[in-house]
Specification:
By secondary structure, the protein is mainly alpha-helical. It contains 6 helices and no strands.
Length: 149
């Protein structure tokens, strides 16, 4: 049932009850019961609607966060990892030293290898809560950024 129709129906019943009470001066239990049932139904329907809309919005936002390009990066997670590695002084120094070590010993510069170091030294996530080993991170893109430091 459409919420607007339901609310208008309740308002009509309330209006009729107020008019009846004014004319007769009587407001009995039989007048209250239909109103109480309608109010309960509206509250129940609205809470289910609000929950489903909120849940749908959260799912939509989660999908957008994971799939949409972010400031020129493949997605939010890739952008967030790159942001922290380039802008946090300690992470920048760690990353730069790690890359130099890899290059000096002819080892590959690969974010998939470096993320293990980040997990051990910095915890499992960035300060924004993105996991260093999130599967949606474009490791090639991050590896290329690391080489440019």
């Amino acid at each position: 049932m459409n919420f607007a129709i339901l609310i208008l129906t309740i308002l009509g019943i309330v209006s009729d009850l107020i008019e009846l009470t004014y004319e007769t001066g009587v407001f009995t239990r039989k007048h209250i019961l239909p109103l109480a049932v309608m109010v309960y139904v509206v509250i129940e329907k609205m809470s289910i609607f609000a929950y489903s809309q909120t849940h749908r919005t959260l799912l939509l936002l989660r999908g957008i966060k994971r799939r949409a390009p972010m400031n020129g990066w493949k997605n939010y997670e890739t952008w967030n990892i790159s942001l922290w590695l380039q802008n946090d002084e300690n992470l920048y120094s760690l990353c730069k030293e790690w890359v130099e070590h890899q290059v000096d010993f002819c080892y590959p510069v690969n974010y998939d290898i470096f993320r293990h170091t980040l997990n051990e030294l910095c915890g499992e996530t960035t300060p924004d809560g993105v996991r260093w080993d999130d599967e949606s991170i474009d490791s090639l893109e991050v590896s290329e950024m690391m080489m440019e430091l």
